[in-house]
Amino acid sequence: MDSLIKMSEKNDFKIIEDAAHAFGSTYKGRKIGSFGHATCFSFDPIKVITCGEGGAVVLKDNVIAEEIRRKRILGKNKDTWHRYNNERSWFYEVTTTGYRYHMSNINAAIGLVQLSKLDQFIARRREICQQYDNVFKGLASIHPLKINYDDVSPFMYIVRIPGKQIEFMSFLEEKGIGTGVHYIANHVHSLFKKYTTKEMPRTEKLWQEIVTLPLHCGLSDNDVQIVIKNVLAFERIAS
Question: A GO molecular function for this record (predicted)?
Fold first, then answer.
């Protein structure tokens, strides 16, 4: 990030951060979202906090912020709230091309309550990740990623399991434990295959090793122990 900021200052370009998974995380003591010219966060159902659906853009430039506000609501210069708090409340003007990207009041209300619980959500997610790490580190077949959770707001918990991804996921599914793969490599998808011009052996290998284990604030200590117990059961079979 430091080198990007220096390049931006030297060459006069804007930094737009994709921080969809990083809400609440820090870098060198500063919150993610305070570095670039614009930062995008996601609040969909599986993120650290959720609005049910939607997200937010954080900006330093008020002019650009106002432009985004107009674009999110079909290019109108006034949203409903402002129209009904001023004279000529019925009148609005379309001043730019726009989209129907605005969040509903219901989704926003959910998000505000979630935001008030952010610290406890992050603490619980970190606690679960540490429990997983403490048990899984040193296993022969299953390898957790090396992450310093002091700075990270954990979005998901991923392990690598070379050569046994499908068997591992199927084993846990039989035990009633959901897993996932985050993410399938882009070049595998039919939309992007035609753009693949060369082999990508590292990417090909990695996406077929990773498995996402359950991680959310609704997991009880007993739930976490059930996951751990069954991961260790697979380890005994696989080793």
Answer: pyridoxal phosphate binding
